[in-house]
Amino acid sequence: MTTVSGVGGTGAAQSQSASTAARDQLMLDYNAFLQLMMAQMKNQDPTEPVDSTQQLAQLASFSQVEQSIKMNTKLETMLANMSFGQVNDLIGRTVTDAAGTTGIVKSVEVYSDGTILGLDNGKGILLGPGVKIS
Q1: Across 42-101, where does the E strand assignment appear?
Q2: Where do the TM regions start and end (predicted)?
């Protein structure tokens, strides 16, 4: 099994995916929605109650968005795992980027926004168009 080690200049805090941030924000919004719905039910006019079908439709919409974000998170995880499996074969190979940085791949870091190849010379190359593998 290959060990994945760090490349200088890239922190894990920078690699938080957009779906994680969206999920965190959704949970905050979902809880706020439930609190607002409870406050609305407690403070409604008894002579003109709020339409329950409208409330259920709002709750269902929030639930659908929550499920979509969870599914996107799982898909991103699957894609990252697939990507890691493919780039794992690059360890020990020589790579050159468009700027001319060359080295032997010693480590691989897969982030939500790209893959960084750690080289034997201490530099890192972002895997993408223009990278030559030999």
Answers
A1: 94-96
A2: none
